[in-house]
Amino acid sequence: MKNPLVVNALELLRRPGSLKDVVCDVEPDLVGLQDDRLAPHSNVDVELVCSSLSTGIVIEGSISARFHGECRRCLAPVDGRIDARVRELYQETVTDPDAFPIENDQIDLRPLVRETVLLELPDAPLCSADCRGLCPVCGLDRNATPCSCRTDARDPRWSALDALREQLPE
Ligand SMILES: [Zn+2]
Ligand SMILES: [Zn+2]
Q1: Which parts of the chain register pLDDT below 70?
Q2: Distance 152 CA to ligand 2 centre (A)
Q3: d(Cα 135, Cα 150) in Å, to the nearest integer?
Q4: Of 55, 85, 99, 126, which alpha carbon lies 20 to 30 A from 71's?
């Protein structure tokens, strides 16, 4: 089976001005992605347009995927979606310092898809921007149950030291 993320560049380069759509959803394995931040059993959506220009082939569009993680403050499950815009230039003879090479008349989009997803996946997501997290004293989820702990209290070990210090003669 032909890989939808390997584009025949020859066809495009022969006809400057021509366009080719690459629209597919692929299993993460196909682009070498094995990352437990990706939502289980979900695919990576690729919607790219390849444009043949005099300078090379421009690949432009979006790459999106669903992620699954734990809120870094309250540990609740967090599901979301990354949606990255990309624009890259591919050249037969690389003259642009930011361009990628076209090898064997083909553009392999797998590294672009993999790197883009890896960059966008959140390491420490939040369930919401104003998540109040777990109480560091009693461990209650402060989003669900307000507690009356004084979280600005100093570490009890320090108050013991303070008490000792007060007993010392000046
Ligand atoms: Zn949270
Ligand atoms: Zn508490």
Answers
A1: 1, 151-164, 169-170
A2: 11
A3: 9
A4: 85
Report the separation in Å between the CA atom of 130 and the middle of ligand 1, taken as the mean of its atom positions: 8
Compute the distance from residue 128 Cα to the ligand 1 centre, in Å: 6
Ligand number, closest to the Cα atom of 131: 1
- Full domain range(s) for residue 164: 132-170
Domains held by the chain: number: 2
This prediction's pTM: 0.81
Residue 166: Cβ-neighbour burial (10 angstroms; 0-12, 13-18, 19+): exposed
Same domain, 71 and 92: yes
Q: 125 C-alpha vs ligand 1 centroid, how far in Å? A: 9
136, 77 contact by CB (below 8 A): no
* Same-domain check for residues 37 and 73: yes
**In sequence order, which residues have a C-beta less than 8 Å from that of residue 44 and are 6 or more positions away?**
25, 26, 27, 28, 31, 33, 63, 64, 65, 113, 117
**85 and 155 inside one domain:** no
